[in-house]
Design a protein that fits this description.
five-stranded parallel beta sheet; 8 helices; Rossmann fold; alpha/beta
Length: 202
């Protein structure tokens, strides 16, 4: 049975090539932060559980996992980590990566989290972003992903899906971070943002 509680949370949002993964990994090293990447949570679902079989009924067919099920999978994961003591609601702030991804998920997640801040990693120079993604694709031996038309389509889809999520929140919660800087400079700006919004007792 799910325990009725809301968690303090910060949303980490950033498109392809923004360095979101890098920043999430570094921030996960802070003792009072628990970095929760929805992709990792999906990959770790117990495939033999009821919720795991429900998840597989969509994922194995290449179908989008419904918003309601996505949030249930997320909540089950969090409650399991609370039960083991890995997440302590009074102490930890959840750094959410990859959820919410739709406006519907924003509404559903409102029952589970109090969003303190939205860290939005932005690269305004599209040329820089495209070159970053080309380099990453070639480094990862994914030459098909290095085509500019493929990259532009990924960026278009990201912008279309992210805009409604951002608009669903009060603009005062959104902190735009210039991600077209060296990773340490981005981390400095992100850390400064979090220092301002996290509870003083943490």
């Amino acid at each position: 049975m799910l325990i009725a509680r809301k968690f303090k949370a910060v949303l980490l949002i950033g498109g392809p090539g923004s360095g979101k993964g890098t920043q999430g990994q570094v921030l996960a090293g802070f003792p009072h932060i628990r970095h929760l990447a929805m992709g990792d949570i999906f990959r770790g679902v117990d495939k033999d559980s009821d919720i795991g079989r429900e998840f597989l009924s969509y994922s194995t067919k290449g179908l989008l996992v419904p918003d309601e099920l996505t949030v249930r999978v997320w909540r089950r994961h969090v409650d399991e980590r609370v039960a083991t003591g890995d997440i302590r609601p009074a102490y930890h702030v959840l750094l959410l990566d990859g959820i919410p991804r739709t406006r519907e998920q924003v509404g559903l997640m409102g029952e589970h989290v109090d969003v303190l801040k939205i860290v939005y990693l932005v690269i305004r120079n599209e040329g820089v972003l495209i070159e970053r993604l080309k380099g990453r694709a070639l480094k990862g031996n994914r030459p098909d992903d290095a085509h500019e038309n493929v990259i532009r389509e990924r960026l278009r889809v990201y912008e279309e899906s992210t805009a409604p999520v951002l608009k669903a929140y009060d603009g005062s919660l959104i902190a735009e971070i210039n991600a077209d800087q060296p990773p340490l400079a981005v981390l400095r700006d992100v850390a400064g943002c979090l220092a301002e919004c996290l509870p003083a007792s943490i």
